[in-house]
Each structure stands twice: as C-alpha cells, then as structure tokens.
Amino acid sequence: MEASGTTSWTGANSTLAKDTDVADVPPYGGSQSLSIVTTAANGYAQSANIRVESSSSYTVWADLRARGAFTARMRVWDVTNAAALGSDQDWDDDDWGTLTSSFTTAATTDNIGIRLIGVENSATIHADNVIVVKQGGYLYGLPSWLLERTWVTDVLALPGDRPSHKSP
Description:
Helix content is 0%, strand content 49%. It has 168 residues and is an all-beta fold.
C-alpha cells in the first residue's frame, strides 16, 4: 500500500483513495492504507491481477479495519474463471485485524485478484499489507525502502551454519 495512488486497485460500487491521515486512521504498517467507501452493498476494491500456477495451493493475508458498524470482507477471486476461491473472511471491528484464507486454484486458473469488500452500503473499510504466498513458499520481511519485488534478485538464508540459496 506504500505506492502512491490506487492504480493497483480497481473499484466496483466504491470510491478508492489512499489514506495518509495518521490522526484519523493510522495505517497498520507503513505510511498509508487503502480506503474503500462503498456506494452500494458489497462494493469492493480488487487488486491488479496476480499470476498464479494452476492446481496449486496458496494463502492470502490482509489487514482490514471496518469503520463504524460495518463489515469488511476478503475474497479471493479467480479472474480466469470468474469465481470465488476458498472461503470469504469477515471482519467487523473498528480496529485492525488480520484475515487469512487458504485456497487452491482450479486447473484452468491463470490469474487471481483479491477483493476487499464493504458488505453494507456506505461502508468505510481500510486495508493494508495484502500478501499472497504459494504453499511451501517463503515470506521475507524486507526494508521499507525496497518498493519493487523485481529489485530482489537473490535471497541467501542462513539456517544453522550452512547457507541455502532461494530464488524469488
């Protein structure tokens, strides 16, 4: 969520913005979060397409906050087949909570999107730190100044006294 603007997200029945007002809604991590205000029930923000392998298992995490008496929902969307994957996860607290869902892609799935949904009309939802990892994959905490995944060319892990090489 640290990239400026909302070009990595597409809204449907919602208005999207980046919220940097720490006094209003402090971001869960970093300097800003995604703000989603629905203009109809079940309005949402969908991530840019995420390329996945077919018939593979993944886990997704998202930090969500539902302002007021609203419900935030996270859904994994199979863009290729226009269908939901796994189970929707809901959060209805005016504080940050981490939602997680595991899912398996279909044999024909090439791309997924993460939908962050405001269940009610006029809901205000905030999102931060949306992460998708393939089962058996690795998640490394990187410095905040490292803005592009493509900047990482190698990872050297030091389990015990022998280094092992992992390619991103």
